[in-house]
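Q: What would this chain look like folded?
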Amino acid sequence: MTTTELEIIKALAEEGNMRKAAERLFLSQPALSQRLQSIEKEWGTLLFIRSQKGLEPTPAGELIIGYAREAIIKREETFEMIASMADKVHGTLKIACASIVGQTWLPQVLKEYVEMYPDAKISLITGWSSEIVKALYEGEAHVGIVRGQVDWKSKKTYLFRDHLYLVDREITSIEELKDTTRPFIQFKSDSNYHMEIQRWWQRHFDQKPGRQITVDQIETCKQLALNGIGYAILPSITLTGDEDVNKMPLLNNEEEFELTRDTWLIGYESSFALKQVDAFTQIVQSHAERLQKDYNY
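A: My prediction, written as structure tokens:
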């Protein structure tokens, strides 16, 4: 199959819908349908069954979808190897990044990267740290930026640590949480983060929060707290310092932060040998060092 045909199979499998796949590939639905029929004729078998739910792969289709995905990854890897032989930094840099970092810190890093290396392309996916590790395993990313404690056996570089703060418009001390009727606003995150918050709460209070609001994004959580809806626990990376709220560090004593969140750069050794990845790593470490100096640690 040609590269275009491989991309067609991959898009149809991922979208599960002829219209969405056509939009993604910048083709009309009739043109895409015709291309699919041509591919099926080449293989001598039906690849997808059309149903009310969309496109369902046949058993033969699943085999060919796997072949298409592997072929696309192999092609990209070959281009990367060729690119690594040249002096200029180009090729595609594939990053999988924790959502919080992708929304706050990473844009500054990428701005410098694209200015320094205009010939390079960037592919960025965001998600929870567990999803970042999965993307690396499956070859969908060269490097990952993860939060918290992550079991990673290959290359793992510490970037920075940010502190966790209780944020609220009315509450002025941690002790007030014992008697407040204000809701605790939480955002969905990886299980490790929530376990750390729960353990901290259990060490300080003998009962769980009375009222709780759960949202799907940290930015929504932050905006609700800033607008006085309730209180939230937010990492310092999400706070600029200009917010009109009370910010209380989650302390063990007056000198020591009890709850923090570490950020790491991870990936396989072979990926860091690529020029576009090496260039990105250098910029990331430079920005991380600046952040560490700002926090004085």
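The first helix runs from residue 3 to 15.
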